[in-house]
Each structure stands twice: as C-alpha cells, then as structure tokens.
C-alpha cells in the first residue's frame, strides 16, 4: 500500500520548482494534494492535471502569502476543501534576493520576511485545528542558513528563522503527536536559482558538493515525502540537509 494513502496534504508554492516536485511526490505516494499557487494559476492547473492523469487526487488553491491575511485566507480555503483533517503541511513558498548588505532596502527585507517567515508561522497557527495526531509539518530552510554563500544575507536570515521555528513548533506540537521538521536544500536549478542556467553557475554549485551532479527538484520532494510519512515517525525538530553533501 502507498505510504501516504488516505492522507491529505497542502503544499504552498506548488506551481513551480521544489513545491511542484513535492506535490507530485506526495501524490505518487498516495496523498490527496492541495496545490497552492499565487500568480501561477496555469502552472498549478497543470500540476493538478498531471496528478489526476496518474490516478491521484488534487485541487488547486490560491493565496498571496505576501499579504498579512494571506495565510488566514489560505487556511480557510483549505478547511473548505478537506474538512477537518490535514495530515501534511509543506510550507514551501518562498522568494530570495541576491543583494549586498549595502543595496538591501527595507521593503526588500520586509517582503522576504513576510513570505518566508511570517507566512509559514501564521499558516501553522491557522491550520493548527486541522492538524492531528500523526500530522507532519515540513518547512523549507536552506544551505545558506548555516553557510555564507553569495550576497544572500537577508534571505539567509529568513532561513535561519525557519530553523529556529522548527525547534519551537516541534516542542509545542509534540504533545499533540504532530511532528515538525525542515529540509535545507543546497542549490536546486529552479527559477529561484537562475544562476544555474549558465555553465559557470552549474560548476559553482557542483564544486561545493560531494555528489557531482546538479540536484533535481524531486531530490528534495522525495525527502519531504519521507519526512511526511510514518517512516519518519520518530523524527521531529530537525533540519534535514538535502544538498548532495554541500560545503562539508
Ligand atoms: N532553489 C534553490 O536552490 C533553493 C535552495 C534552498 C532552499 N530553497 C527554498 O525552497 C523553496 C522553493 O524554492 P524554489 O526554488 O522552488 O522557488 P521557485 O521556483 O521560485 O518557486 C517559488 C514558489 O513560491 C511561490 N510564491 C512566491 N511568492 C509568493 C507569494 N507572494 N505568495 C504565495 N506564493 C508565492 C510561487 O508561486 P507562484 O509562481 O504561483 O506565484 C512558486 O510556486 C523556497 O522556500 C526556497 O527558499 C530553494
């Protein structure tokens, strides 16, 4: 039997990149998946269609997580579709900004924290009533939370905040049987890591890694599906580094 059969899952930012691969991985493993998007309605519809064509169950759902009430609206929409029970919450939606300390504006800084930290925090708060014993939350951290690479200090700080939240959420929710973990990808060639479109960019990424190939979004999706499953039942409060051995 599929390891997530009968489970419901929400993946934020599932229209593209790592979120898309995660939605497909969870569906492949048997979950009904809510495919969240903000601007990428067509892309989200394509993910839903791919899941359904493979015999799975999926719905798309939208919310702008840069807005203060975005997580509240998304949680309301999720409850309207799945009813009272959410087994898997993957707070993946995020933005990055490669900007020097000198050139970072207050607006850029606030937007990074709004989407990457405030939204996951309030999504967990708002969906808490739907989470139950056995539910699993996975947040997205990053290699740059613990290694200084490029000019990513404000973005990196948002991921450091995620590593902190994982510990506090796991402690607070553990007594309810809810596990909370993060995955920290290295460089994954998505729209966010667009520098990987050049050979120099790919060589830079591979040069940091023990494993000498480019990551694929599904390398991350598969790890998230593992953390969501009963095989990870004794893992909580962890940030799992899924980066091909980057910066060892
Ligand atoms: N790629 C990497 O190298 C890498 C490395 C480490 C960690 N990560 C983390 O992994 C996660 C996914 O990254 P990715 O590379 O897959 O990024 P991506 O390809 O740029 O996709 C970003 C996703 O986030 C959604 N999103 C962006 N702004 C939003 C907003 N205001 N409201 C709601 N959704 C919004 C987008 O939705 P729409 O397109 O529908 O607007 C899209 O689905 C992020 O948290 C990122 O920080 C990525």
From TrEMBL:
Keywords: Oxidoreductase. One of its GO terms (molecular function) is oxidoreductase activity. The keyword Signal does not apply. The keyword Oxidoreductase applies. SUPFAM superfamilies: NAD(P)-binding Rossmann-fold domains (SSF51735). Residues 7-192 form the Ketoreductase domain. InterPro entries: KR_dom, NAD(P)-bd_dom_sf, Sc_DH/Rdtase_CS, SDR_fam. PANTHER family: OXIDOREDUCTASE, SHORT-CHAIN DEHYDROGENASE/REDUCTASE FAMILY (AFU_ORTHOLOGUE AFUA_5G02870) (PTHR43639), SHORT-CHAIN DEHYDROGENASE_REDUCTASE FAMILY PROTEIN (PTHR43639:SF1). Belongs to the short-chain dehydrogenases/reductases (SDR) family. This is Short-chain dehydrogenase.
């Amino acid at each position: 039997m599929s390891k997530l059969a009968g489970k419901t899952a929400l993946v934020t930012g599932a229209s593209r990149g790592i979120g898309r691969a995660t939605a497909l991985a969870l569906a492949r493993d048997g979950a009904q998946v809510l495919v969240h998007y903000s601007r990428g309605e067509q892309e989200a519809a394509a993910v839903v269609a791919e899941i359904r064509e493979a015999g799975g169950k999926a719905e798309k759902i939208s919310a702008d997580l840069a807005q203060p009430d975005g997580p509240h609206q998304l949680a309301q929409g999720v409850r309207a579709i799945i009813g009272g029970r959410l087994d898997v919450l993957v707070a993946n939606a995020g933005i990055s900004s490669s900007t020097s300390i000198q050139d970072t504006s207050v607006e850029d800084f606030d937007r990074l924290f709004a989407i990457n930290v405030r939204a996951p925090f309030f999504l967990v708060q708002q969906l808490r009533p739907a989470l139950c014993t056995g539910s699993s939350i996975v947040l997205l951290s990053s290699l740059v939370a613990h290694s200084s690479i490029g000019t990513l200090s404000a973005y990196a700080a948002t991921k450091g905040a995620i590593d902190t939240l994982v510990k506090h959420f796991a402690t607070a929710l553990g007594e309810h049987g809810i596990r909370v973990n993060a995955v920290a990808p290295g460089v994954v060639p998505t729209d966010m890591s667009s520098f990987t479109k050049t050979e120099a960019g790919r060589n830079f990424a591979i040069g940091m890694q023990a494993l000498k190939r480019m990551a694929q979004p599904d390398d991350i999706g598969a790890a998230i599906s593992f953390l969501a499953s009963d095989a990870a039942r004794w893992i909580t409060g962890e940030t799992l580094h899924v980066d091909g051995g980057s910066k060892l």
